[in-house]
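## tool: complex_structure
## caller: assistant
## args:
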Amino acid sequence: MNIFRLTGDLSHLAAIIILLLKIWKTRSCAGISGKSQVLFALVFTTRYLDLLTSFISLYNTTMKIIYIGCAYATVYLIYMKFKATYDGNHDTFRVEFLVVPVGGLAFLVNHDFSPLEILWTFSIYLESVAILPQLFMISKTGEAETITTHYLFFLGLYRALYLINWIWRFYFEGFFDMIAIVAGVVQTILYCDFFYLYVTKGESGSNKINPA
Amino acid sequence: CHRTTVKDEL
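## result:
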């Protein structure tokens, strides 16, 4: 465990909690892509099946359970409790265009052709593109609320910190996982345009981000 | 490299 991974994990946790609290406090999920949240729930479910097969550390187990729990809680709030506020008309990204190719790729490019390993690979590939429905929704409506942009910022920061973590681990532990690294680079790149807007618009005092 | 890595990351 190095400082980059720890802050990466905490940044990821912050993003998840920010979104959950935003929906809970405002009693509304307007502007949030339910599809992205379902994809993240799927990502955590398929990645953390190893909770049942191996124990790594108390930290590891606790965080996995929190991530999975929060992901399903978010999906529940969007599709059940605050369903009336869900902006389904603008959440029109075709998720099958992500899930099907990603599933195929996980079958073709993996470390080991075993069910758990393929599901883990699937989750890594899917995570890298799971935010696309949310970014698509923002580009469609033309704006995002401040809290939503904070959510996206921490979510992007998390993977960027993981990239530094992987460089660190390569130099100091000789550790590298090509699948995680390539998917992590793709994931971080998807947030770059958003990061730029977040910083520039944030300084201008505007509370909305307009990608157009 | 065709080997399963240790999944100690989240």
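## assistant note: Residues 3 and 9 of chain B are 17 Å apart (CA to CA). The mean pLDDT of chain B is 71. Handing back to user.
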